Amino acid sequence: SRLEDNVKKTLAENPVVVYSKTWCSYSSEVKTLLKRLGVEPLVIELDELGPQGPQIQKVLERLTGQHTVPNVFIGGKHIGGCTDTVKLYRKGELEPLLSEANAK
Amino acid sequence: SRLEDNVKKTLAENPVVVYSKTWCSYSSEVKTLLKRLGVEPLVIELDELGPQGPQIQKVLERLTGQHTVPNVFIGGKHIGGCTDTVKLYRKGELEPLLSEANAK
Ligand SMILES: N[C@@H](CCC(=O)N[C@@H](CS)C(=O)NCC(=O)O)C(=O)O
Ligand SMILES: N[C@@H](CCC(=O)N[C@@H](CS)C(=O)NCC(=O)O)C(=O)O
Ligand code: FES
């Protein structure tokens, strides 16, 4: 669909993309972690897009199997949610992924 | 209001009360922590009450200044959210509060 093409284009053109909701603390946690690492992620607040928000969430679920927020992509690759991203960071595996994607 | 009386009655009659939302990870975290400590909190899922949910949230905001979830009460006393409850636990201050309220 056109929406799916847009999402794929967004993921291809931006080193780090976070699909988020403004009032969700897990979304805030992952945005704060990335900013602390000197990364300027493209943040898409799904609750500020009207009817498109849930539609994009459906596309993300089709593409990744994940309907929840936050939904994090680095270098076009699906990383997962907040706990996944934090786990990678603690293992020292997040920063190499960010460097590889020219995000830092 | 009648609703405010109901909320006050709930807080007076139950040693531990958590106002939550089913899909919120911070709410899940605090419920999991309390259950791990052997406590059976009274959990009120605000997103399952229809129009009463937001009304109760307004009452809680009037009573505590906090409109967010989770909203935790022990022995009728307002504790705060997830980060507040976890901080108390880490300082060893949560379990004495739970014992005092006959929650354990
Ligand atoms: N472990 C996941 C949890 C994700 C999650 O459950 N997110 C919630 C908000 S905190 C959500 O999107 N809930 C909506 C739903 O469950 O439909 C993560 O760390 O991101
Ligand atoms: N630090 C607070 C954060 C609470 C918070 O921001 N909760 C969010 C959901 S995770 C909320 O209720 N958002 C609704 C709103 O901001 O209106 C806690 O630990 O409980
Ligand atoms: S909505 Fe509460 S942590 Fe996401």
UniProtKB/TrEMBL annotation, chains A, B:
Record domain Glutaredoxin: where: 16-79
Any one cellular-component term (Gene Ontology): cytoplasm
Keywords attached to this entry: Redox-active center
Keyword Metal-binding applies: no
Gene Ontology terms, MF aspect: glutathione disulfide oxidoreductase activity
GO biological process, one term: cellular response to oxidative stress
Family statement: Belongs to the glutaredoxin family. CPYC subfamily.
Protein name, as recorded: Glutaredoxin domain-containing protein
Whole-protein coverage range: 72 to 175 of 179
